Amino acid sequence: MTSSDSSGKKWTSAEEEIMQATYRALLSHGYANLSMSRIAEELDKSKAAPYYYYDSKDELLVSFLDYSVDQFEETIDTRESDDPKETLDRVIEKLLPLQPDETEQQLQTVLVELRAQAVTNEAFREQFTRLDEKIVTAIHEIIQRGIDDGVFRDVDSTRVAEHILATITGTRYCHATTNRQTAIAVTRVSLSSYIDSELRKRP
């Protein structure tokens, strides 16, 4: 996770530093062993900052999820000049990397841990709902652009986007909670076949 330019944004530089510290602490300790003091230890400056802005770990994590959604929206690459098929492939690779490195695997584990809290935590649920809706919207817009450009055949782009998201989410959960190390590769092949059958224009 990289820090964004806070100029004109809703996040101050101090808040962004706390979000980055939270990210590092989550990678190091996971949700179960996370604490405000461990987040404070990751800060280069004032270790009292998390306590100044947030009353509890969960309140801080709700903000962290909010920040993560904003980061996703800023970093997802759906440039209009790109070929829609290449753009869709790039987004899928970002969401479900074929060969995730250690940091990416840790991040997916952290997100699964946080998503599990949304079962009983309404604030977490709202943030994951917002994140999923952003992803569906991004994929829908790519597919719709492909339809408008004559690259993809005319389909219900929202339905296809929802299917892609559900497949990615399920695979990430499987990868983070089992030893089925081939799950990502197998799913990527299956997902590629699904996208081709749904979107490729027939002669």
Please render the helix and strand layout as text.
Layout lengths: L12 H17 L6 H6 L7 H5 L3 H19 L8 H12 L6 H16 L4 H27 L8 H21 L5 H17 L4
Helix pairs in contact: 1-4, 4-7, 5-7, 6-8, 7-8, 8-9
Summary, kept brief:
By secondary structure, the protein is mostly helical. Helices cover 69% and strands 0% of the residues.
Please tell me about this protein's structure.
- The chain has nine helices and no strands.
- It is mostly helical and 203 residues long.
Count of alpha/pi helices:
9
* Secondary-structure element order, N to C: HHHHHHHHH
What oligomeric state do these chains adopt?
A: single chain
Biggest sheet details: none
Low-pLDDT regions: 2-8
Molecular shape? elongated
Percent helix among the residues? 55-70%
> What average pLDDT do the residues reach?
87
Structural class given helices, strands, pairing? Answer: mainly alpha
Report strand %: under 5%
What is the straight-line distance between the termini? 43 Å
Main attributes of the structure:
mainly alpha, elongated, 9 helices
